[in-house]
Amino acid sequence: MNRKIKRAEIDHLLYRLPGAVGGSGVSSVDVYLVDLESADGAAGWGFSYGLRGGAPAVRAAAADLIDRFVLGYTADAPAATWRQMNAALNRIGRGAYYSAMAAIDLALWDLHAKQRKVTLAETLGGRPRAVPVYGSGGYTANQPPDAAAEMAAAQAQAGFPLVKLRVGGDRHDIDRIKAVRAALPDGVDIAADANEKCDLARAQWLAKVCADHNLLWLEEPLPARDLAGYVALARNSPVAIALGEHLQGVGECMPFLEARACAVAQPDHAAMGGISESLRLCHVAEAFGIGAAPHFLPALFVHVAAAAPNVTWLEDFPLLEPLFDIAVKIDNQRRMAPGDRPGHGLKLREDARQEYRVKRA
Fold first, then answer.
1. Residue 16 sits in which domain range?
2. Which pLDDT score is estimated for 248?
3. N vs C: which end of the chain shows fewer Cβ within 10 Å?
C-alpha cells in the first residue's frame, strides 16, 4: 500500500480572545495549521501557535520544510523526520522554524497514528493513564485578592487539586496568596507564576513568600534564559522552581537541567518544535529526577504523559480550546486520560477556518 504523503496544506488563523488573558496579557493568538493526506487516503493534521506577530516567517518556514522533508515521504517515523528538519537549521537557527516544525511534527504523528488506527498515546509508545489537571486560567498579576480567591474557590469546587496564581514580585502578592489559601479547602494546593517579572532580588524574596505559604512551585520568576540567575535562585530557594515554556528544544533546556536550576520542566508544544522534542525533554528530565508539567493544551499533552511517567501535572489554561472539538476522559478528581479517537483526538471546529482564516495578500 502506498503511504507516501501526496498533499500538504498550510493555513493561518488569527484567533482573537475576548480580552487580555494570563500573566502575559495576550489578546490574540496566531494559529498555524498543517493538513496532510497520504496516497492511501489517510489524513492527519497538526497545529502550532504564536503570540505578537511573526506569521509570514512561520508560514514560509512551514512551506520550506514541507517541500523538503514531507511531500513524497511517509509518516512512518515522525521523530526521524523531526531530526532531519532540525538538522537543516544548523546554520540558520531555530526561531520561526520551530513554530512551523511543531505543526508539521504533530500532523505527522496524527497521520501515523491514524494509519495504525490507534491513539497518539499508543503511537508514542505509552500506556494511557489519568493525570491530574490544575486550574490556571482566570488569574492576573494585578488581580484583587477577593477576585483571585473567588476564582480559586470555583476551581476547587470543580475538582481541581491545584490552582496556579499569577504574581508580580511585590507586596500585593502576599495578600492575594493569603486570600486564596483561606478560600481553598484542605487538600487543594497552590502554585504561582511570575511570568518573568522579577530580577534576582525580587525572585529570592518571592520564593520565600511562596514557601511561607506552602506553595508547590514558583514558575518563571526570572527571564527565561537567565541561567546564572536561576542557578543562584535554585541554590537557596525554599520552594521548587518551574521553568521551560519559552525554551526552544532540549539543547536550550539542558543547561538548566544539568545545573539543577529547576524542579519542574515545562515544555511548550510550539517552543519545543513539536511533540517529538517535548517527549524527549520529558525523558531527559526524568533522567535527572526532574518532573514535567507541560505548558497548557492538556488534551494534547495527555498523550505525551502516557509515554513519560514523570509528567505529574497537566495545565488547564483555556486558550485555544474553543477552536477544537475535544474528546478526553476526565474523572471527578479532575484527572485526564486520552480518549479513544485515533491520532491526537482533537478536531478543528467546523467553522473555525472560515471565521478566523487570514487570507494571504
1. 5-117+350-356
2. 97
3. C
